[in-house]
Amino acid sequence: MTVSSPGNRPSVTELRLSAFATHRRAGFPLGPLSLFTGLSGSGKSSALRAYEALARLGGGAELGEVFPDPAACVPERARPDAQRRRGFRIGCTADGPEGPVRLDVAVQAEPELRIVGERLTAGGLTLLETALRDPSRRTVQAAWHTAGSSPVTRAPLPDDRLGTALLPLRVAGKTDGQRQVLAAAEQMVVALRSVFACDPLPRAMRTAVPLGAGRLLGGCENLAEVLWRTRSECGRRHGLLVDAVRAGCAGPVHDLLAERPADGAAGTVWAVLDRGDGVRTPLGLLGDGELRYLALALVLLTGPGVLAVDPAGEVPAALQTLTVLADGFDRDLDARQRDGLVRLAARMCERGHIRLVGAVSDASWAAGVDGVTVVDL
Questions:
Q1: Please, are residues 359 and 36 in contact by the beta-carbon 8 Å criterion?
Q2: Distance separating alpha carbons of residues 271 and 261, to the nearest angstrom
Q3: Which phi and psi angles does 246 have, rounded to 5°?
Q4: At what angle do helices 288-300 and 235-248 cross, to 10 degrees?
Q5: For residues 159 and 148, what is the distance between their CA atoms, to the nearest angstrom?
Q6: Residues 367, 370, 372, 377: is their CA dihedral positive or negative?
Q7: Each residue of 47-68: pLDDT tens digit?
Q8: Gap between the Cα atoms of 206 and 147, Å rounded
Q9: CA distance 258 to 322
Q10: Are 345 and 337 in contact (CB under 8 A)?
């Protein structure tokens, strides 16, 4: 895939939930920093869940791994057809060097979980279309644009994986049409793949953790292990993290570090705040808001090499965008922490290498921040 500049990185600019959980015929614009807001039960978390599902499918995951409880994704009032089938439909648009590329996926949840239809389009042209022709077989019939001696190529694809993610393995790229299909599919896959779903769990961040690979998990429970690694790897970013922590935590903060607890098990570390006067405060003594603020600041100031994500290894990191999905972005935060965190997110997103899609209970406080897209449900 040819990308003209880092400013033209592929990115998801619209999420479509045609029929998913509480959503019907819904389309949501997404900017570099987007916040879903609405009353409890309005579908904020389900929108993020659909985005994460598309990302995992784009990375090649099997349908059953992505939707362990598919019936929960079916709209509540959806009625089964004559064959007792029910399902849901999700999709997105990815912008990039190939212009807007649309992906729409229809999933059958009952009686068997399978992809029953998929469409990839760009510039008004259908580049890939799949349909379930024979329910007795675990395949769908796929047709993709060729524009050679034959206008389309037809072949079966498995019904438990996203066809778009399989195209680079199936399309030869010998004709202009095939190359167009490959470019659009690769743009969609690169836009989707590097996603980090994050919801810090304060109670899990209060204890010592074993040393391991040093990649931050979605619940941030191994934050101390990550600090043990990153504090010495990049002094500049660690300095920015300390500045952010100083702005969001009570009392003086000279440094943030991981150390071995004196009475802890061998091979474990915990995180502490260095107060600068010989006093070190274990993170276990901090409030939930301070811990969530600290964890989210760390996420925003790191990248795929530190976060437990699956980047597109065949594409240079400088041409990829990491998308952070943060459910409950403002949970437990006071006004100072909330404002500081969204301004940090806006600064990081403005640089183009990171995007954030969050869910908040109320976004009135963020409406005046430059670069924030508020999606009111």
A1: yes
A2: 9
A3: -60, -35
A4: 150
A5: 27
A6: positive
A7: 999 999 999 999 999 999 999 9
A8: 59
A9: 26
A10: no
